[in-house]
Each structure stands twice: as C-alpha cells, then as structure tokens.
Automatic annotation (TrEMBL):
Residues 1-24 are annotated as: Disordered. This is Osmotically inducible protein OsmC. Residues 1-12 have a biased composition (Basic and acidic residues). It comes from Actinomyces capricornis. Pfam families: OsmC. InterPro entries: KH_dom-like_a/b (IPR015946), OsmC/Ohr_fam (IPR003718), OsmC/Ohrsf (IPR036102). It comes from the Bacteria. Residues 13-22 have a biased composition (Polar residues).
Length: 158
C-alpha cells in the first residue's frame, strides 16, 4: 500500500475531510454531481466542475501554468517596469481530442513595455524566460512529465 501523500487518514466524524495534511497538499470534496470544492491548508477554496462559477480541471491546469510563469518572473518584471506594474497572463492550449489531452500550451504575459527601448525589451525577455526556466515547477512538471498514482481509500479501514 502506498503511503498517504495528502492526509494521514484521520477523518472528522461528519465527513471525509482530512484533519491534517502534508505540506503543499490539496484536496477536493464532492458537493454535487460533477461538482467539487478544492481546498488547501491555507484555507483557500476553488469551485471545480463543469457548470457556472466553476473552473474545469483543464482550466485550473492552464491557470496554474500561467501564474507559475508570472510568479517566477515577477521580480524581473518589477525591476524593469516598476513595483506597481500591471500585467495579465493568459494560457491557451491545443487539445488532442482523440487522446483527451493537451498537446501544447501557449502562455502570454501582457504588460506595458512602452517605457523600454528595443534593447531593454530584449534583455527583459531573456531574464523573464530565465527566471521561468529556473523556478516554474508547473512548467517543469509538464515539460518532463510526472508519474501519477491513484488509490481509492476507505476512510474506515486502517
């Protein structure tokens, strides 16, 4: 049996919510048909599903990649553009429908570069890409792939 990666199997009496979780762990509770609420140890929540007001799992993956890119490069952008710079990051994909997977991701950081000449823009692009290459865990995981294991656990079994 694999060790628990996100909880230690101690459950509350009223639900299957873990009482404690490993660092960095996340979990989701079913709240309806094809509807879950995702949680982290910091108290954050996100609605996951296919309906109004919910992110699909694929959308969450895209948001994770996009924001991992900008969080990794935020210090580089702030140094070049100023601490209060505004930015929006987006991510789109090419989906292989037959295999039910994404073939590629395209991340785009949109920010005002009008204060930089072409040389400074080029240097900034190199530094942003370098920071992302060093620090974006989500990007590294997607590029190199990661093993996935699945186990269905009965909380009443020891």
């Amino acid at each position: 049996m694999n060790p628990r990666v996100w909880h230690d199997r101690r459950m509350t009496e009223s639900s299957t919510t873990p009482q404690s979780s490993a660092p960095g762990a996340v979990w989701a509770e079913r709240v309806g048909t094809r509807q879950y609420v995702g949680h982290n140890a910091n108290g954050a929540e996100v609605r996951v599903g296919m309906g109004p007001g919910e992110f699909s799992p694929g959308e969450l993956l895209k948001i994770a990649l996009a924001t991992c890119n900008t969080l990794s490069a935020d210090h580089r952008l702030a140094k070049a553009l100023g601490e209060g710079f505004a930015a929006t990051v987006g991510c789109s994909t090419v989906k292989n429908e037959a295999e039910e997977r994404y073939e590629s991701f395209q991340v785009e950081i949109v920010t005002d570069l009008s204060g930089l000449d072409e040389s400074k823009r080029s240097v900034l692009a190199e530094r942003v890409e370098g920071a992302i290459d060093r620090s974006c865990t989500v990007g590294h995981t997607l590029e190199k792939g990661a093993a996935i294991t699945l186990e269905i656990v009965d909380p009443d079994e020891d």
